[in-house]
C-alpha cells in the first residue's frame, strides 16, 4: 500500500524531472513568482494548518525552542515568499556548455550543465524548509520529493499544496514538487533506497537523522550540517581581536552548526588569554570544560575525551591548551566534523599551514566561524552546508543542485 | 584480528593523506618517475609473482578471457610504467585557488582545490589497476587503499610492493599506497564502512561488485562502469554513416562498458536499414534479438523485456523499432544505465532535443559511443567512467580525484 504510493510518487517525480530539464528559465522564474504570491494570498489557511501542529506539539510537550521553530506567522510566511523571489534574480546554471573543444579527429567534446533529476529531502521540524528546498530545486530544474517531520505535518502539507499548485498553474509539470503525504517512518526508509527514482538525497536535521540516512541509503547522499567547530589561538595572535572572535563564534547564535564548540589555545598565551576569555564567557552563562592545563589556569569543569567530539549546540565550551600549531591541527583533524575551523594568528606562515592542512569545508584566518553561510559568502540561498568531500563542500546553492553531461558532436566519427 | 589490521591500514593511510596534501608537485612527479623505473627494474620478480596467479587460475579453470586479463608480460609492465610517466606531464590541480572575492565587509572568500584524502579502490581481475589507480591517486595528493581480486593477489602484491617502496624512497609518506594484504572477503566489507579513514570508495569491476558496494557502503561511493548503451537511428539519418557507426559501437571492442547493447531504429527507415545492418552483424557472428516489428523485417530471435535492460558485453545486440524520437528518448531513459547514448540524425532540432533530454554521462550526435574515454576526450588517464550524477560524470581523471575547501581570510571579522 505505502510501497505503491511511494512508487507512484517516485515515478511521477522522475517523469516530471525529464520535462523540467527542458523548461526555460523564464517559466521557472514565473513559477517562483506565482509560488511567492500564492503563499502571501493563503496566509490564513497556512496559519490554520500550523495551529494544528502547534496544538499537537504543546500537547506532546515539545520544548519552547522546538515550538518556536515550528511556529508560522504572517511575517515568517512573508519571509518564505521573499526567499522565493530572491531566487528569481539568481542565474540559472542549467544548459551552460563549457570547455567545448575540437579533438584532433574533428570530434567536438564539451560539458553541459544539467539538473540532478529528482532530489529527495528528508528533514525535521522547521516548515520553512518545505518552501526553501522546493524553490531551490525548481530553479535548478530538479523535481523534489520531500519528507518532513511529523511535528510539522499539517504545516508542510499546507505549504506544499499552495506552492505546487501555483507552480503547476505556471507551466511546471505535475509531480515536480511533492510532499510525502504520510507521517509513516517507513516512507523515509523507502526514499533511501529508491535509486530508480531519486538521484540524490539531502537529509536536513540533527546528527541522528543524518547518520540514519548515511547508514541506510543506497541513493547517493549529500551530507550536511554537523559542525564540531574549533578556533585556535596562536602564540602571536592579537588577543583582543581573538577574544572578540571567539565570543562571536560561540555566542552570536550558539544553536547552529557553524558555532564554535572547542577553543584551542597555544600554551605560550594561555596564562594571559584564558582568564580574560573565562571572565567573558562565565558572565554570559557559558559552562567551560577544560583540559588539565586549562584547569591549572582557570576555574572550570574537567573536559572528558567525549567533550572533544561533541557538538554542544548550546552554552558549553570545551577548552584545550596545546603545545603548538602542529598539535592544534592534529586535534582538529582528529575530532572535527570537517565543517568550519579557524586560526587567529599574525604569522603568514602559520596561517598558510593551517589553511593548507586543516581538513574542513571552510578554513578561516582571523575571523569567526559563524561566517560559513551561503549569504555571507555571497552565493545567495543555500540548501545546506556540505561536510563531505564529494560533489560539493561548504554552502550548497543552486549550482550545487546540478550535474553535468558530456556532449559529443561528430560527423560520422568511429573509433579506430 | 583482521579488524585490527584494517584499522591500522586505515589509520596509516589517513595519517599519510594529511602529509601528502602538502607534498609538492615536484616530489610527486619524482615519485611517479621512481615508481615507473622500479617497475621496469623488477619485471622478472613481478612476472614470477604473476605466474603463481596464472597457475592457480588455470587450475581453477578460469576462462581464457579472464586468464588473458590476468596475464602480465614485459610489454604490459612497460605499459604500466609508461602510464605513470604520462601522469608526470599532466597538471597538478591541488592548491589552485579560484573565485577569491572580497565581500562588502572586507572578508576575502575563495575556493582552494584539495585532495579527497584517502581513496579506497575495490577491484577485480586486472592487475594493471593497482598501478594505474595508485599513480592517479598520488598525483592528486591522495592516499590509496586498494583491495584487488583474489585471482590477481600475488601480482597485485608484487606490483604494490614495488611502487610503494619506490614512492616512499622519493619522499612520499609511508602508508600513502597500500594494498590490503589478504584475500579475505571481509576486508572489502570493512572498507565499505570505514568512514573514519576512507573518504571515497571507487569500485571497479562487474555489476555484482558495484551493486554490492552501493548497497553496503556508508562511505561515499563513486559509481563507475556499467554501460547499457544505445544508438538511435532517426528517419533522416545518413544510413551509410549510421551503419559504420553502429558497427563500430558494437564491434570495435564488444566487452567494454561504452560498447552498444541496443539499437533503436525509427520505423520510417527500419525497412531499409535493418536488412543492411543484419547482413553485416550476422556475418560478424552477432546474435540479433529483435522486437515484434524488427522480426517482421529481418530474421532474428525475439527480444524479451530483460533484453532491453541487459549489458551483454559480448556479441549480442537487441534491436527495437520505435515510432519517433520521443519513444527513443523514453526507452533510453527507462532502460539505460546513464553511460553513453547516441543519435544518428541530420536534423539540428532532433540532435538538440536528444542532447538535452537524454539522461546520460555522455550524449553523442553522429558518432560511436566507443569514444567515451578519458584519452579520447583529451583528458589523459582515467580512474573509471562515472555513471552517477554527484561529483563527477563521465571519464574521471586527476581533477575528479580532488575536492575543494573554502578559505576565508579576515582581519578580526565577527558576524553581526
From TrEMBL, chains A, B:
Q: Would I find Iron among this entry's keywords?
A: no
| EC number of the protein | 1.2.1.41
Q: What class of enzyme is it?
A: oxidoreductase
Alphabetical UniProt keywords = Amino-acid biosynthesis, Cytoplasm, NADP, Oxidoreductase, Proline biosynthesis
Q: Which GO terms describe its molecular function?
A: glutamate-5-semialdehyde dehydrogenase activity; NADP binding
Q: Which Pfam families match?
A: Aldedh
State the compartments where it is located: Cytoplasm
Query: Can you cite a GO biological process for this protein?
Result: L-proline biosynthetic process
Q: In which pathway does it act?
A: Amino-acid biosynthesis; L-proline biosynthesis; L-glutamate 5-semialdehyde from L-glutamate: step 2/2
Can you give the residue ranges of the Aldehyde dehydrogenase domain? 4-279, 308-405
Q: Which HAMAP family match?
A: ProA (MF_00412)
Q: What does the UniProt record say this protein does?
A: Catalyzes the NADPH-dependent reduction of L-glutamate 5-phosphate into L-glutamate 5-semialdehyde and phosphate. The product spontaneously undergoes cyclization to form 1-pyrroline-5-carboxylate.
Give the protein's recorded name. Gamma-glutamyl phosphate reductase
Q: Which organism is it from?
A: Syntrophaceticus schinkii
What's the name of its gene? proA
